[in-house]
Amino acid sequence: MTSRSLGSWDLGSALMTAGTLVGTAVVYPRLPALVPIHFDIHGHVDGVAPRLVGAWLMPLTMLFLGVFLHVVSRRKPRAERAPMALVTFITMALLAAIHFVMLRTALLGVLDAGLAIGVVLATFCVALGLAMP
User: What is the mean pLDDT of the chain?
Assistant: First the structure.
């Protein structure tokens, strides 16, 4: 694999980001005027944004973060890239899952996402713990 090609974790992060962008585009017309973007400690919606911001903030953040981390990782020695790519992948999965919860909450009109957010955060913590040496 050349230094310009994407590694398997980089490719996974890129595909996850692309899937999030495409999924958002598909549901965008059905989203309400205000989309939940923040939840309190109990999972209740306590912050909303206009549809344009609420729908695209997380996917565009994922895109920026993915590109930034990919560029930064290319400056590291090859041995240090694999752990960084894995942590990037896990972080992208967290952001995609939170975005999915936000869209689901907006589409269903529910105001409580506590269980879903708890499962997402618990899974992230376990995955990150397993990835760390």
Answer: 87
